[in-house]
Amino acid sequence: MTVGTVLITGGTGYIGSFTSLALLENDYNVVIVDNLYNSSKVALDRIELICGKRPVFYEADVTDEKALDDIFAEHPDIDSVIHFAALKAVGESSVIPLEYYRVNVGGSIALLRSMSKHDVTNIVFSSSATVYGDATRFENMIPIPEHCPIGPTNTYGRTKSMIEQVITDHVEAQRRNLKKADKPYEQWNGALLRYFNPCGAHPSGVMGEDPQGVPYNLLPLLGKVATGDMEKLKVFGTDYASRDGTAIRDYIHVLDLARGHLMALNYLREQKPGVKAWNLGSGRGSTVLEIIKAFSSVVGRDLPYEVVDRRPGDVLDLTANPALANKELQWKTELSMEDACADLWRWVSNNPQGYRQAPPAKLLEALKAEKA
Fold it and tell me: Per the database record, which ranges form the NAD-dependent epimerase/dehydratase domain (predicted)?
């Protein structure tokens, strides 16, 4: 018996595909909408390989309200949305800011409008720790709690904080208007999941991150260096006030992160809290050089890097205080940064062409044996 049907925007992307897998493994039906701008339909095959179930898929753009209307009309059983679809590179966002506002904010508004028309009342939003900006500007805000003032330092972060506000205003207005009309209103809810640095791959080695262009995140870039696709890694600044001069980030295994979305969705459906924000992170900060060392250790050799200037908008420390999610969602990370490094290396070393190749027979055999 299924628990419910969920629409996942950006569901063939990295975090979206792992969240789709987590929901299918927990008896949800999943409908994915993705324009495949930075993802591959092959992710659907890998999801099915692992769990034996396949999401329904539509190739459509989240900014296309008419396409969303048609999908909701075709699936009247959808009662919740998990919203990932967005442009996501901090550096790129400062180069093409209008495109980031058009896709990220405009797409979210189109989605909420369509949800309203079709009475889809729960939304889990993939936000980001970048909404906090430089939390070191306040006393006692590292690790960062949800009550830390919002203050993004780059365009990408500003789009995320703007969408959080749009969702908050929309859900609160729906609840207020329905309550005033003496109608049921508690079905309208939103979860704002602020997460830190997702990383890792499926431990089977058949599913992972496969960016279509050059990746922007540290661990996938290290994977490219390790496989020889890139000569060396660029380290943006060694003049931070940290233990080794490089920026500090909170790395969270993508399997833990996907489970966090599942638990936030369940919380909305069961507790009906209105709009709530939760940090999803490990609470453990690692510097860039510590990550390079950890991944080099898994690979078995030192990976080359070059120190360059800081990027605009980068901040010293983005480490989560996940206490609220630990308590309210009964969620906490179960996998370490070292686990993420090992899983990522298994993925990139066995699948150097990502989803553009078939997974090695030995990995498929191991996966079948595990499921038998």
Answer: 6-281
Higher pLDDT, residue 318 or 181: 181
Q: Which DSSP letter does residue 278 get?
A: E
pLDDT bracket for residue 224 (50, 70, 90):
very high
CA–CA gap between residue 281 and residue 319 (Å, rounded): 7
The reported pTM is 0.96
Measuring CA to CA, which residue among 11, 15, 53, 65 is closest to residue 33?
11
For residue 215, pLDDT beyond 80: no
Rounded distance between C-alpha atoms, residue 354 and residue 212, angstroms? 9
The catalytic residue among 100, 156, 251, 267 is 156
DSSP assignment, residue 69?
A: H
Is residue 185 within 8 Å of residue 273, measured between CB atoms? no
**Cα within 13 Å of Cα(27), Cβ side:** 4
H or E element in which residue 191 lies: strand 189-195
Structure tokens at 135: 């939390």
Which helix (H) or strand (E) segment holds residue 56: the answer is strand 56-59
For the structural domain made of 5-371, what CATH number should be given? 3.40.50.720
Residue with tokens 């595909």: 17
Q: Which amino acid is at 10?
A: G
Domain parsing of the chain, residue ranges:
5-371
Distance CA(52)–CA(155), nearest Å, equals 39
pLDDT number for residue 371: 84
Three-state DSSP class for residue 32? strand
Rg (CA), the chain: 20
Q: Pick from 263, 339, 315: which is nearest to 129 by CA?
A: 315
* pLDDT reported for residue 1: 75
Among this protein's residues, is 101 annotated catalytic? no
Q: What is the mean pLDDT of residues 344-366?
A: 95
CA distance 169 to 26: 31
DSSP string, 74-108: H-TTEEEEEE--S---HHHHTTSHHHHIIIIIIHH
Task: List beta partners, residue 252.
Answer: 198
Q: Tell me, what's the pLDDT at 216?
A: 76
pLDDT in tens, 127-158: 999 999 999 999 999 999 999 999 999 999 99
Q: Is 337:284 a contact under the CB 8 Å cutoff?
A: yes
- Cα–Cα distance, 249 to 197 (Å, whole number): 7
